[in-house]
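so im writing up the methods section and need the Type IV pilus biogenesis record in one place, dumping it here so i stop losing it
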Amino acid sequence: MPVTRIVNPNDEITTKPNARTRIEATQPDAMPMGFTSLIGTLLTPKGPAAYLKLSQGRVRRVQTGDIIDGARIVAIEDGELTLTRGSDTRAMRIPGH
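--- predicted struct ---
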């Protein structure tokens, strides 16, 4: 799993995103409002983690075992998060990934 570097939001960013990133970051309706969306995955010293944009617009960092909307997160991989609720298993993917 690739490691994502976390930067301080107050730091000045000196690199520009490549053309593909700019295009995919601005896709209309790629991340519909009113739904929970996976927006990032990363590897931490405690294991994989993910960032979710919740239906209310807030962003939450989660890890395996956390519960979101009544479903348990059972796996986090590069660009994908797997949830189970009872016998139902579903995967969330980063839009455009």
